[in-house]
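User: Can you help me understand a structure? I only have the sequence.
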Amino acid sequence: MTIKGNPLRILFILDTTDRGERNMIIGMNRQGVDTTVVCRPDAPGRVELEAAGINVVPIHFRTKLDSAARKALRQLLSQNNFDLVHVFSKKPLINWTLATLGRKTPPVVAYRGIIGNMSYWDPFSWLSFLNPNLARWVCVCEAIRQYFLNKKFLLAFSLFKPERVVTIHKGHRLEWYQQQGGEPLLPTVGVPAGAPVIGCIARMKKRKGILELIRSMESISADKPPHLVLIGRVLDEEIRTACEASPCKDRIHLLGFHPDAARMAGEFDILTLPSLRREGLPRAVIEGMAQGIVPVVSDSGGNPELVEDGISGLVVPAGDAEALAKAFSQLLNDPVQAQKMGGEAKNRIRDHFNVERTIEQTLALYSDVLKERA
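Assistant: Let's start by predicting it. Here is the structure, written out as C-alpha cells:
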C-alpha cells in the first residue's frame, strides 16, 4: 500500500504487545507498509518485531499523565512524517492526545477491546475513547461497536458519525495454540483419569458468571459426573465460598493462576465462559476452540459472534444456571455431537478469525481514512 508512490507509514502505539497485534504488524510490514512500533521496553514480542526489521521505539507509559512519555512522543512525531497513527490501549492514547494538543498530527485510529469503563464525567474518557477527533474506533467485536452506538449523547451532539465505528476481529493462527504433547496435566490437579471435564479459564469474578457455573454442576445429568476446573486469579472471595459450599465440591477444582492454562484447555471436554455482561472477544475461548474443544458460552458481549449456536458450540442466556446445566448435559451425553462441534469451532477460528483477514480489513480501513483526509 502506497501514498503518492511512497510506502504507507504507520505508527503503532502500544503498551505491551500480544501475539495477534504483533503478527498483524509484522504481516503489514511484509506487505510493504513502513511500520514503527512504540511499546514498553520489556514488552513480550519486542525482539520478534525487531527481528522482522521493524523499528521499535521503547516508551514506558507509567501513568495516564506521563510527562516523559509525552516528551518522547513529541520528539518521535517531529522526526518522522507518519501517514496514520494506530493506538491500542487507553494510557498510550491519553498521553498521545495530550502530547499533540495544538499540533498538526496524522489521523488517529484507536483500538477498543472491552465493553464499558467509559464515563461522560471522566475527563480521561474524553482524552481517549470519547475523543471526537479520532478518525476511527476499531472494535474487536460487534458488541463493542453497539456499545459505542448506544452512547446517545455523542450522536445527539454529532460528536462522531456511526460509520466511523467499525468492527474488525483480532486475528489468530491455529498453530499458536497446538500443544506439544507431554504428560497430561489434569491428573496433577486432582482430576481422575477418564472423568469428563468442564473447564473455565478467566479472572474469577462474579461478572464472569462463575457463581452460576458452580450452581450448574448440581443439575447436570450425565452417565459420568463431570469435574469442573476453574483456572484464573480469584478476585471475588464469594467464588471460593461457593466452591466450598457446593454439594459437588469434590468435583470442583479452583486452581487460581496456572502457567499452563492454554495447554490444560486442550484436555477439557468442554470449555465454558458464562459471562454475565461486558464480554469482548475472549482469548481463552479462542484458545480452546483452536484446539478443537467445544465451547459453551453465554450470550454476553462478543460470545455469540465467536460461537455459532448449535454449529461451533452452544450459546445460553447469561445468568441462567439451568440452561448451562442443560447444555453441558447435552454435550456430555452425545460425545459424537461434541466432537463435531469442536471440529467446527476449530474451523471457525481458522476461517473467520485469522491474521490475514485482520490485515486485509485493517489496511482497507486505513485507505478509507486517508481518502477522507486527502
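Now, to help you interpret it: The mean pLDDT is 94. The first helix runs from residue 19 to 30. Let me know which part you'd like to focus on.
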